[in-house]
Specification:
With 248 residues, the chain is α/β, with parallel strands linked by helices. It is 40% helix and 17% strand. It binds adenine.
Length: 248
């Protein structure tokens, strides 16, 4: 999967994604990521990409022209790449999703991450200042996505959050493919508690069932603990799980 992040701060993206699990996944070639500087596409002779908003309310807005030309250039490159290797890639004419990360979008969750993980390419557009001129958004954006009901200074952190959550669902990124399924939200519940060595720490014992070697019993315990934890910490998720799983 190939992430294309359009931003005024490309170094922030590449530094953020280059380490740990994602850095390794990029080296292995499971995922690819590029950060494209929107400023490189401005036709303004002073390299300006923003201007004052029309109407009341002070603030600067990213202008339509550099954003449009940047998105267009990236989509053209993707189409050309797909056309070069049609047997392994999505058809060149398949619409590439262009996500604008904004507090005004649908709230990102695990289900959305799973949907996006099926794409071969994902374009993430990061706004800054007061946002981006509405006219270009109308023309290029396919999805508006927020990472939560709070406002950040720019779209870079939300884009990185999305790349991280989506990448770990791409086959080969996690060493143990199973963990993406058993993780919190993988089955709509929070994950059960986990323990490592030593067997006793601060007088607290690892639950004996985990030492029993009985896989059936362990699975039963894990589900019960998942349910207990979800009910306590996320009653909304618990309610939803009950509705979907209680068929009696
Ligand atoms: N840009 C600023 N705040 C944001 C948020 N909460 N989600 C996505 N993009 C944003």
């Amino acid at each position: 999967m190939f992430f294309h992040v359009l931003t005024l701060f490309p170094e922030m993206i590449m530094e953020g994604l280059g380490t740990s699990i994602l850095g390794r996944a990029m080296q292995k070639g499971c995922i690819q990521a590029e950060a494209i500087n929107i400023r490189d596409y401005t036709t303004n002779k002073h390299q300006k990409v923003d201007d004052y908003t029309y109407g009341p309310g002070a603030g600067m807005l990213m202008q339509a022209q550099p954003v449009y030309d940047c998105v267009h250039a990236v989509l053209t490159r993707i189409a050309e790449r797909r056309a070069r290797s049609p047997e392994t890639e999505s058809p060149a004419e398949k619409r590439v999703r262009v996500v604008y990360v904004t507090p005004q979008g649908a709230v990102f969750d695990q289900k959305m991450a799973q949907e996006f993980a099926k794409e071969e390419d994902l374009v993430l557009l990061c706004g800054h200042y007061e946002g981006i001129d509405e006219r270009v958004l109308e023309e290029v954006v396919t999805d508006y996505v927020s990472i939560g009901d709070y406002v950040l200074t720019g779209g870079e952190l939300p884009a990185m959050v999305m790349v991280d959550a989506i990448s770990r669902l791409v086959p080969g990124v996690l060493n143990n493919d199973e963990s993406a399924v058993t993780d919190s939200f993988g089955n709509g519940l929070l994950e059960h508690p986990q323990y490592s060595r030593p067997q006793v720490w601060h007088d607290k014992e690892v639950p004996p069932v985990l030492l029993s070697g009985n896989h059936k019993l362990i699975e039963k315990w894990q589900l019960e603990e998942s349910l207990k934890r979800t009910k306590e910490r996320r009653p909304d998720l618990y309610q939803k799980w009950r509705e979907e799983n209680d068929h009696s």
